[in-house]
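Model it.
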Amino acid sequence: MSDSEGLPETGAPKEVLGSMHFVLISLGKELGERYDTKLQEEIGPNWVQALSRARHKSINPIDAQFVLSEPLRNSDSPTRACLPTGGAFYNQLEDVLRVRNEWMHHEVAPVDLHHLLIGVDVIHRLATSAELRIGKLCSLVKKRAKDIIDGRYVPRATTPDQGLADELAELQAELAAARQREKSLVEEMGAAQALLDEAAQGVPEATVVVEPDPETLKQLAMAEEKLARLEFLVESLLAAREAPPEPHPVSARESDVVALPGHQWDAPLPTRSTTLMGLQDDLFDPLIRNGIAAEFGPEAVNQIKKWRPLIAPGATVLINDAGQAVSYIDGVPTYLGNLAGDSHHSADESKLTGFFVGHSYTLRLNGTIEDRETGDTLAQVNPGSAKKVGKKLKELIPNGGRLRVTTTGTIARYQEGEWVEVSQVAPDDWFLGHL
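Modeled.
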């Protein structure tokens, strides 16, 4: 790797994104190689497969998400033996994982050198603590970014400023060519393998040694890396253009806490404790030994009916003076809605069935669906359904983007100011435990 590889030439979003992507893949490769060297000695050459079985998902050992989250979230992980110990170091791991998720899920705005400096500095601190070679790369990226900001660096070659639309069109054309190149290499390897298999017929098994052509393997790896970089650039620039915000409803009354049904309740919990009655659409208050629906008007019964698919009879429902109801769903305090009814509904409430589950997802340009918080992909945790679901969504949403899913299996995408239904998914075809 040359000293200039991965360094930004200008402050343009494409340059900034390219530098961060290069740093992240370099981090994944170096830590992944460290894990592989040590764990092959301690566990054996099949340690990746063994860990995949233990985690119930497929693993890419050089992916930045894996090399960071595996030791951070699993106290029994053999990868911990490859790293420093102590709470301070695990805090650094968590900080770098947050940086990775923010950039890979296009949550950094604006995409500029200032945010590149912040993110790379977090990675640099981890590299220093873990004695990683990419510490040098981080130093060079930070210096180059500062030099560009201060006017001390003149790009090697200047080109006219491109508009975002032109830049996207150029990158998408390059992406299409890269996909075709990868496809051709895969077909070439498949044809070569078929010839080897044919030649091996009738030869005693012990004498057959089938090895893919090293040069073709090298070209394929380079093509896949270029493809991943281009997909990241196109996704990021599309996200910057669309800039979809998370839903943020307006409360019915000024005294209400702003919350969206189905989302985690982040305010102090309401203090009035009631239980959902079994035979009547009402909430029982043990202090007054009676139902409370009548206190909040005729809409209360209809509101309670909506909650029955989410919580069981006898479940605790906490109520505040404004009529907002909170209950624990899968251990998370979740806002159910307002007993008095909402005078204002956000677009997603009025057009989608059910509540949003407490997860957010990204649909990649290649059809991969990723949990934005954990980094797990549907292909890792539910490989039997991932290809089918990803193909369907990619046909419906060619550019990918942010997804949400409701408790009724409605998949929604934010577009033109509202969350719009794009498809349906069965619980068994989605991330297990999310629906």
